[in-house]
Amino acid sequence: MPFEIVHWVSEANPRTIVDGTYGGGGHTRLLRDVLPDDGASNLPSPLVIGMDRDPSVIQRDDVPGGPGSDPKVELFLGSYEKAPAALAHCDRTHADAFVLDLGLSSDQLADRDRGFSFTLPDAELDLRFDPESDLPAHQWLAFHGEKEIADAIYQFGEERFSRRIARQICLRAKERSPVKTVGDLVEICRRCVPRSKNHDIHPATRTFQALRIVVNDELGILERTLASAADWIAPGGRIAAISFHSLEDRIVKNAFRNDDRWEILTKKPLRPSEEEVRENPRSRSAKLRVAMRKADVSGGLPGRPPL
């Protein structure tokens, strides 16, 4: 939903924007064009801070001639949870806009070393955004019992057949043939999950979603970030968050609704246009919510005395 993002962010007349999920850089390039051209001496220079947990993403674009070499763009390796540290590195205390696109990028789906795509059955079942942190998914499965695995698949994937799947995963481990690849887990899901009537959802979709959320602590990071965002987004600034499943969307909705510092600008989530869905079928489940940071009663910036 690139044009919707640009519309809602541009209304804040931002000078500092944090793109918390840089990915392929599409939003960052569009957001860069939203920035003013001037570099007024009494104001911060216009800047988009692009953040990503994937080292390969930053290495790809933070090179001479790449997007990271643009004076209006700074790229940082790390979770968007570290946005305040990225702002401080750029000598800023606050952002005017914060953008989150919580979906997987095309590059991640195509990376056979991560195991995000069902079309690469021989790929290792890793599922981490940052391959240097925590455990890959196949090791997480090896270190947890049947109940913990079933609970995770049910809670984070909303998979009704989580107990069947967990039982088969643990049976394979007992038979000294543990799940290690994408194909191993897809085979189990095909056997355990009945074919849906509409045939739209791959039988392994919910299980892969659940394990990806677990190994990357996706929901925990999202909750913590949204809980603190009003501390480092300036009054009048905006958050625009695109979610792709109900668990993410619920967290975003509740974070905006339960914090009086936010004014909700999208009473209902915005959905992609029919044209965008035709061009990019993966966007069909996207939901965009936008909120604005209310002005402090004092008239000053959060945590700072009024001028």
Automatic annotation (TrEMBL):
The keyword NAD does not apply. SUPFAM superfamilies: Putative methyltransferase TM0872, insert domain, S-adenosyl-L-methionine-dependent methyltransferases. Keywords: Cytoplasm, Methyltransferase, rRNA processing, S-adenosyl-L-methionine, Transferase. It is found in: Cytoplasm. Residues 272-282 have a biased composition (Basic and acidic residues). GO terms for molecular function: rRNA (cytosine-N4-)-methyltransferase activity. It comes from the Bacteria. One of its GO terms (cellular component) is cytoplasm. One of its GO terms (biological process) is rRNA base methylation. This is Ribosomal RNA small subunit methyltransferase H. It comes from Rhodopirellula sallentina SM41. The gene is rsmH.
